[in-house]
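Bumping my old thread because nobody answered last time. Still need a sequence for this structure:
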């Protein structure tokens, strides 16, 4: 297993549309292991492969509440939303690629998701509550969509500007440290 770097806004790779996994093999298993290690270390409750720079339709998740609770790792390969409720709900969201920014997002309250597990077996789950929010957030990542895209244009532009400025400053600091 290896801890991987999480790419941060405004990294353009976050806008890529990830490719379906054609064959689940040893490389897929290694990718999933790296994703769990990176997600738990962050710490976060969900991660899409593109967040470590791999444009594949793979999501890891663990919604267990507290650190001392038993881990509940979940893997979703090629996840698809097959239906969504008309009813909406609002949850506060954050994202490891937009650190320390949280905002309320409205999404369908329930979704039915079809996906493959690591053994290649197909599953369907009726997601509600936190699982519904999280899986929609992660599937958005696979399509190059970020949770800030669900906010007003004003809020989104403010966030993009702020993180672009931070990235420029970090690059400048790294350059002067190397001099
Ligand atoms: Ni995210």
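Sorry it took so long. Here it is:
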């Amino acid at each position: 297993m290896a801890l991987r770097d999480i790419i941060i806004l405004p990294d353009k790779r976050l806008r890529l549309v990830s490719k379906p996994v054609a064959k689940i093999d040893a490389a897929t298993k290694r990718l999933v292991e790296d994703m769990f290690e990176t997600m738990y270390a962050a710490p976060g409750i969900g991660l899409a492969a593109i967040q470590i720079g791999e444009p594949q339709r793979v999501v890891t998740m663990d919604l267990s509440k507290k650190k001392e609770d038993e881990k509940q790792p979940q893997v979703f390969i090629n996840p698809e939303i097959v239906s969504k409720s008309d009813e909406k709900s609002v949850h506060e969201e954050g994202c490891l690629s937009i650190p320390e920014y949280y905002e309320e997002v409205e999404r369908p309250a329930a979704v039915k998701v079809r996906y493959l597990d690591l053994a290649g077996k197909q599953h369907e789950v009726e997601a509600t509550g936190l699982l519904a929010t999280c899986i929609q957030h992660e599937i958005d990542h696979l399509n190059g969509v970020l949770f800030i895209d669900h906010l007003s244009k004003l809020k989104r532009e403010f966030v993009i500007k702020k993180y672009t400025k931070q990235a420029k400053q970090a690059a400048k600091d790294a350059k002067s440290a190397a001099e």
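The chain is about 30% helix and 30% strand. Let me know if any region looks off to you.
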